[in-house]
Amino acid sequence: MTNEIFLSVVSPMHNEEGCAQEFLDRTQKVCSQLNCTYEIIIVDDGSTDSTFTILCQSTITELTTLQLTRNTGQTAAIYAGIQHSKGRYVIIIDSDLQNLPEEIPLLLNKAKQGIDCVSGIRQKRTEKVLSRKIPSKIANYFLRKITGCPAKDMGGFKCINGQLLRDIPLRAGQHRFLPILVWVRGGSVEDVPVSSAPRTTGESHYGLSRILDVIFDIILLWFQYSF
What are the backbone angles phi and psi of residue 123, rounded to the nearest 5°? Predict the structure, then answer.
């Protein structure tokens, strides 16, 4: 089937007017050099700035823009993009340019070796130590212990088998656990080192409430997989 989409790039956006155009340009440039069919799916998660206007004015023919009428959260936005995707492989990437679009081929090439979920491990992370790095390391440690999934960095940059991914239902907060959800369904998971660039525009949506959400989700996973 000649019109089959080989790669889908899915990214949620919420109030990212400062980097939306740069993200689109860099992602399109990288994908156009892959010598494969591709689509870029951006889900505007109820932005209140000019993010959606920027997306609508884009001339990128491979771009599909979905708009959620209100801010429903990252899981709902990612899930909407996943369900709209058609690619044999699906890249999940944040749009704030802390994940580098230029590293999409790095994950895709590993996935093409037969790995169902390629999980990016962020190197030299620039986030605050107490509010981001330490809680993340602790959470990832407990998640590996609870589920047996080998991924060392559960959230963030991923390349996943599209057919498998579209069959996974996502509850609120579970975008953080995609490697686990692939692993418990018998899929293979491998890590690949990726860059972690500092945020240059906008504001982080991560705060104390997100840390508490992650702790609660870990407890739920512990009950689910321990019994």
Answer: -100, 145
